[in-house]
Design brief:
Length: 171
């Protein structure tokens, strides 16, 4: 976040200038990062992120974080598992990019491997994101990625929930 300040002179301080903060303005070009996966909760993330990007005139980065397949599977099974996970990841990112394109929002997609909470926060930090959008699956007894991101995020975060189908979602 960049802050815009203007120097002003006050009558009481004849000659001395003071800086008064007008408002905090995000630096132009900083994107909104939206974490997606193949779940129904991603529909709300995509919808919310696209609306926010359009309103804030910001670019959008959709990030899909997958955990790698276990190495003990052996070569053919490992490759089959990896191929299936990458196909699902590409499909999810492509759907999100289609919705952003329909809304006229500049967007790009990233597919990363690792622990979702850490990788989402790392990408947001690397891109100097103005906002992070994650989904909620309403899990009660297990740890969720959205709770982990919420606890560790340094900037603003939106937790989106969806009950409607995604625009342009064709299965």
């Amino acid at each position: 976040m960049a802050a815009r300040a203007t120097p002003t002179r006050t009558p009481a301080s004849a000659g001395a200038a003071e800086l008064r903060l007008i408002r905090a303005v995000p630096a132009k070009g900083t994107p909104i990062v939206a974490a997606i996966d193949e779940s129904s909760a991603s529909r709300g993330v995509v919808e919310t992120a696209v609306k926010l990007a359009a309103e804030l005139n910001a670019s959008l980065v959709f990030v899909y974080v997958r955990r790698g397949p276990p190495g003990f599977l052996g070569r053919p099974f490992f490759q089959r598992s990896l191929t299936a996970k990458m196909t699902r990841a590409r499909r999810s990112v492509d759907r999100a990019l289609r919705v952003a394109a329909q809304a006229g929002v500049d967007a790009e997609g990233e597919i990363l491997e690792g622990a979702p909470r850490k990788r989402i926060l790392q990408l947001a930090s690397d891109r100097d994101a103005r906002l992070i959008v994650v989904g909620s699956r309403r899990r009660r007894f297990s740890r969720s990625v959205s709770c982990g991101v919420l606890r560790a995020a340094e900037g603003p975060l939106v937790v989106a929930r969806s009950s409607r189908p995604l625009l342009g979602d064709v299965r």
